[in-house]
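In this supplementary section we document a worked example of the pipeline. Step one takes a protein sequence of length 381 as its only input; no multiple sequence alignment statistics are reported here. Step two produces a three-dimensional model, which step three serialises into structure tokens for compact storage. The input and output of this example are shown verbatim.
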Amino acid sequence: MQRHVERRLNLVNLLLARLAHPRAIAMWDFSWLERRWPGAGYENPTRALDELAERGYDAVRIDAYPHLVSADSRREWELLPCWSVQDWGSPALNRVRVQPHLDEFLAACAARGIAVGLSSWYREDRAQMRLRIRSPEEHADQWIATVQAIDPALRARLLFVDLCNEWPLAVWAPFFPQEANCAGDDWGTPASLAWMRRAVARFRDAFPGLPVTFSTSSTPEHYLDTELPGFDLIEAHLWMANATDFYRRVGYSYERFSPVGYENVVQHAEALYRASPAEWQTSLHARIDFLAECGRRQKLPLITTEGWAIVDYKDWPLLDWGWVKELTALGAEWAAATGRWAAIATSNFCGPQFHGMWSDIAWHQRLTHLIRHGELPDHSA
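The serialised model returned by step three reads:
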């Protein structure tokens, strides 16, 4: 146990030394590869990265599709939509080939000084490759094969690997036995912790110098009182909307193929926030402070690549970005002020497909400057 703790602390020190300063990180999920039709935002990836750098971002988190790469990285895979109402990824049937696009994207990031964190949303394909994961060892082996397939020079520049986005939500991790996880999104159950522990250990044996974690979007209290399964960092996604009863009062239930949720957002979301902004801001600040304390207790750096206001939003009739930008800015600023974050997102809408957010270059530059000039966490504090 002592050797494991010392190894983890050494890796944390190496990660923080490589960072030099907190990173302003964007979340480009599977959009970086799937949204390449005309007008989708990533049809010219180098131009999109130039725009990201112009706005002051120096890190990005993307889907590496490990379940597809480990099977055949250069095969054309047919993907099914995970939703039709959101602007991440494709709202309809699509086809992708991961390599050589992944190496090309990583090389373009390296040329611009943009660090890359790899993750996976385990996108559904016609062959149902994601359901072939039957154990945490197979889960890790797919990632090992994926990282090994990356050009070694580019592999050395990776910031971290997140073995699954928002573990263990069934939409992203359908291979995890959900009957072992009664709450559906509770990552702190014995079955969930055991899976993560085994997957992390196997991946670390192959890549002992590459920070590894599982990202989460719920039950942050576990970070305070749980022996984490070998994480090198905490990748916690946090929004005001999922930390309060905001969505219940709006009437939004994460509808993926129905317009009903957005109809309620149009009618109620901004009005509810504007009626009592201090109430929602205070709730967000409290949750950020709680996560900062978790980082102190666990002696791990925090990274948040998705946050801080509302989970789902888009360019749409009668939807205004003003209140979302107001609250996400407050969240990013509050997190930066704690000195516990190694990388901070300004929002999870930080991509060219969200025109109302993306077009305000000065807004991005102000926040990314603030993030990058903050303090890195002292894991020994």
